[in-house]
Amino acid sequence: MAKAKTPTDLTITPRDQRFGREERYRRWWANGDPYASAFYNALSVTFPKGEGFFIDSVRQFRDGASPRLAREIKSFVQQEVMHTREHVAFNRHVVDQGYDISRLEKRVDDEIALTRGRPPIANLAATMCLEHFTAIIANELIADPRHLAGADQAAADLWRWHAIEEIEHKGVAYDTWLYATRDWSRWRRWKVKAIVMLIVTARFFRGRAQGMLDLLAQDGMTGPGVKWRLFRYAFVRPGMARKILGAWASFFLPGFHPWKHDDRQLIALVDSDYQDARLPRSPAAGQPQAV
């Protein structure tokens, strides 16, 4: 079997950074664009409870993992805890601008409720798929500076900080999945992860689109024209959804692993801004078998 592609010299470095505590963001903080602002605001609402779900799902399998993987899980958890804290603060800015995010939060609660009572391996599979989403969005966010051009500085810094850490730990949930399913056949592993990814993708796009439309409606923007402009924002210009399609589809290829595409150079573009916030770094994970 091919080995997983987690780089042996990869380190996961939690950066304890705080953003925007002493300022107030514009209502349309993303370059005055209501669609861009709604996109990031709707995504941010999912993070506090969503990342708590990720932490619980991965931590279930820490016992018995290799020392390296256990250390990476620990650093993954540290990063996600700080992401949760910062998005709670960011979401307060959204509320301060007069938005009601209760319906968006309820959708997140409803999505997480669907996982209750399911086997831990099922929740890990969902986490692995969602971590792939966050990693490929993070890649695109940093690779194309136009996504955050003109944004309020502290908000842009928050999203870039979050993005580099998502790239950095993008293999942890997947390596945990490989460890947890080490006794499965390659076919069973691929079948389960493919089915889960299709379900997760449908729910992800539906949920985030509903959230964006909810926020836009609170700005008095409704109707077919708004839906068309929302589609154009996602798939045409700047086209985040379109640009990540290839990376999303790679998940289904035999032998896929998140680190088959080594994009650490993107981390280096941003990382120096947070040198002073670095916590002790963790060594890389072990090299479990790839599917």
In words, what does this structure look like?
It holds the Pfam family Metal_hydrol. By secondary structure, this protein is mostly helical. It has one domain: Ribonucleotide Reductase, subunit A. The protein has eleven helices and no strands. It has helices at residues 34-59, 67-96, 102-113, 120-143, 153-168, 172-180, 186-218, 224-235, 240-243, 245-250, 264-271.
Topology:
Blueprint (H helix, E strand, L loop, with lengths): L33 H26 L7 H30 L5 H12 L6 H24 L9 H16 L3 H9 L5 H33 L5 H12 L4 H4 L1 H6 L13 H8 L20
Helix pairs in contact: 1-2, 1-3, 1-4, 1-7, 2-5, 2-6, 3-7, 4-5, 4-6, 4-7, 5-11
Features:
291 residues; Ribonucleotide Reductase, subunit A; globular; 11 helices; mainly alpha; single chain
List the uncertain runs. 282-288
CATH class: Mainly Alpha
Question: What do we call the CATH topology?
Answer: Ribonucleotide Reductase, subunit A
SS elements, strand count? 0
How big is the Rg?
18 Å
Distance between the termini: 8 Å
Principal-axis shape: globular
What percentage of amino acids are in beta strands? under 5%
How many separate domains?
Answer: 1
Number of helices: 11
Helix content: 55-70%
Could you give the order of the helices and strands? HHHHHHHHHHH
Briefly note the structural class of the backbone: mainly alpha
Q: Report the biggest beta sheet as strand number plus sense, adding barrel if it closes.
A: none
- CATH architecture assignment: Orthogonal Bundle
Average pLDDT, to the nearest integer? 94
Protein name: Metal-dependent hydrolase
Pfam family, one: Metal_hydrol
Keywords: Hydrolase
InterPro entries: UCP07580 (IPR016516)
